[in-house]
């Protein structure tokens, strides 16, 4: 509100009345972002992508001190209740893994498990199961059925849940194990292969899909799958 003086010459007293000034309308800022990509709501980081950090030293940034950023491993996904899959986690992913409350990790590579990762598992009372499966790229190399079968027995043991299955990239060896689990869950092959290809992408192998299709489930048919009732036909 502004006080305006009216009338009155020099030395005279004029009428004084208030004048209301309307506030300017807020400016409209156009945005090319979609509704999903609201710039005020940070999206979860993609696999293996480090968190974005700005150069702003404002109080808003500093107010986050003490909060731990949880970063999932490469190709991380939930397979079923209490069962997860991913690529090889590194120390940047430890906080995220801890939040899952894991009891077990199934490791499908022949390379020795890193000492820093072993220490993390030990400190958090997480049991490590190693099944040394070579990551062969040749098309007609046999995948060791017995090792996949033994790994499946761990997956089916609910006392080991929550469990994380991982290999190097979370594509082929992990995809074969999860594909065999899906057959136990009576998924149709087209759904199993769709899931496999979603993670393997351009690296999908016909030999892996053939292995999943022909894998002998007879010794596992009696195993309880009480952790899930999910099926696809």
Automatic annotation (TrEMBL):
Signal peptide: none annotated. InterPro entries: PFA-DSPs (IPR020428), Prot-tyrosine_phosphatase-like (IPR029021), Siw14-like (IPR004861), Tyr_Pase_AS (IPR016130), TYR_PHOSPHATASE_DUAL_dom (IPR020422). One of its GO terms (cellular component) is cytoplasm. Its EC number is 3.6.1.52. The keyword Hydrolase applies. It is an enzyme of class 3 (hydrolase). Coiled coil: none annotated. It catalyses: 3,5-bis(diphospho)-1D-myo-inositol 1,2,4,6-tetrakisphosphate + H2O = 3-diphospho-1D-myo-inositol 1,2,4,5,6-pentakisphosphate + phosphate + 2 H(+); 1,5-bis(diphospho)-1D-myo-inositol 2,3,4,6-tetrakisphosphate + H2O = 1-diphospho-1D-myo-inositol 2,3,4,5,6-pentakisphosphate + phosphate + 2 H(+); 5-diphospho-1D-myo-inositol 1,2,3,4,6-pentakisphosphate + H2O = 1D-myo-inositol hexakisphosphate + phosphate + H(+); 6-diphospho-1D-myo-inositol pentakisphosphate + H2O = 1D-myo-inositol hexakisphosphate + phosphate + H(+). Residues 1-13 have a biased composition (Gly residues). Keywords: Hydrolase. Pfam families: Y_phosphatase2. This is diphosphoinositol-polyphosphate diphosphatase.
